[in-house]
Design goal:
The complex is a heterodimer of chains A (361) and B (262). By secondary structure, chain A is α+β, with helices and mostly antiparallel strands. Chain A has 8 helices and 19 strands. Chain B contains 11 helices and no strands. The mean pLDDT of chain B is 86. Classes of the chains: A alpha+beta (361), B mainly alpha (262). Chain B: This is ABC transporter permease.
Amino acid sequence: MTDHAVELKSVVKRYGDFTAVHDTNLGIPEGSFLTLLGPSGCGKTTTLRMIAGLTGITEGDILIKGRRVNDLPIHKRNLGIVFQNYALFPHRTVQQNVAFGLKYRNTPKDEAERRVREALELVQLPQMADRMPSQLSGGQQQRIALARAIVIQPDVLLLDEPLSALDANLREDMRIELKRIQHTLGITTVFVTHDQSEALAMSDRIVVMSAGHVEQVGSPEEVYNRPASEFVAGFLGNSNILSGKVMDIAGPVAKLELDGLGPVLAATDGVGRTLSTGETVKVSIRAEKLMLDGADPAGDDISTFPGTVTTVDYQGQVARYFLESGGLTLQAINTIDERPLQEGTETAIRIRARDCVVLPH
Amino acid sequence: MFTSWSLIRFGTILIYLFMFAPVAVVVLLSFNANQFGSFPMEGLSLRWFVALLENKAIVRAFQTSLLLGALTAVISTTLGVLGSLAMVRYDFPGKSLIATALIAPILVPEVVLAVALLLFLGAMGMPKSFPLLLAGHVIFTLPFVVLVVQARLVAVKREYEEAAMSLGAGPIETFFQITLPLILPAVLAGGLFAFTISFDDITGTLFWKPGGVETVPTQIFAMLRNSISPEINALGTVMIVITVALPLLSAGVARQLTRKQK
């Protein structure tokens, strides 16, 4: 396929007996922003480094722009990489840092100067050209590292947790900035992060990884609303994972008997196969989709259970409640109108069928 | 009244006096006008320095020492940097064994090393020569270079090199453009170590030097066997100036380089 800027075909990475990345197939469409998301040790950085050529692959093929690059050393791959700690050359000025890659592309001097200037303007730091990296703040270093990576017009931009060293406010600004720049240039981007909100905010597609396996590939909405596994449901946001039995199936909605809670209507469109009556399944319900008293949804697909508030975690705009219902502990996050529900309050718990997602396995 | 601290201070002063007084005496006496190198001094004179310059054997020893030290520094630094790169950046079978072998020459008493190399050369049927003397000096200055450069290299993050390579620089360009400038202070310090150690060495040199070749230390040693000439005081002063001034100078250069990187 030619519309994929990067393609991984049955890629495996082993270190001795340890398999860091299991048989992975992945296509990254030209111009898209793809995020490898997962906890540390899930293989996301290894995958990025294999695409970069910084780590060899044990089995399989990696294609960049349709060309097999397994044996192509990193300096011939035409990639832009931004590292977690920026890795700006400390003995070079900002100008020299950004111009570094152009030297190896035989760019004429005046064109190189123009492109460096344009890159610095794109990251909004044109006045910093003569500074040394140590004279810049973390956020500025981050932007210069990005400018250095994009000035060479790479086929693919690889970002290895580039925001994790920044403080929280700056991180949110850079997130928007990074997405803007990526959009402006239309450059194929692979972004590695363990931060779900970064992944959800920036990506066209998210690859959720765990223990060297790809758990799910999909748009941010798909991954968030239709998790393909218990791991994905648990890793993104706060989810209640419950188990139950299929009682009846009616198109995209199934009637389940949840252990401890009783009958509930659930969505089955994320399963990808036909369920059978009597089958035991797991469902995921997002904490913010459990609606308590004060948030009364309308509709004919709502299931209701009684519950008792045991703990209130007040956060201003929202409150996180822990509830006891049918011997189970449930989590609910609701917006607050006036004041949160008090501990010990008896409340009704309501769930819409579409928010009660049956997991594939 | 003596408190424990003032006692320590007094002791420290005595120790330093014991260490540096002889050096001061040598320097002072080298300017003594008197024929016999002893106190009281009878006027200042540079005559012993002039005598040094006119002493062909000493001048030749000086040339030998400088050449030997400079070559030792260059070879040791080159090998040391390459060895350090291998040790820090790569994994290969037998790495820890080689690491030990690289450091071993400073753990083994120099005289043992000197005799061993001499016996080895004898067994090989090789006559003593200047290149072999040079090889000897390289062997026991190498560990110092490796230790200094390795320590610095560990602190230079791999990401700098990876970033350079991702931008299109090959491994060799990456080394000269990125790695070497970043470890340069350590490389210079290592080279200087190698030079001063070589310039100073007598034990190994006595065993390894071919007939007719003298370095400054062996020349002084030979002169001392006959008599204590005031020329030796002058020669000592020159050596002190060289071995003190060089490190100070290079420390200044290294500080300048580091400041530029900050």
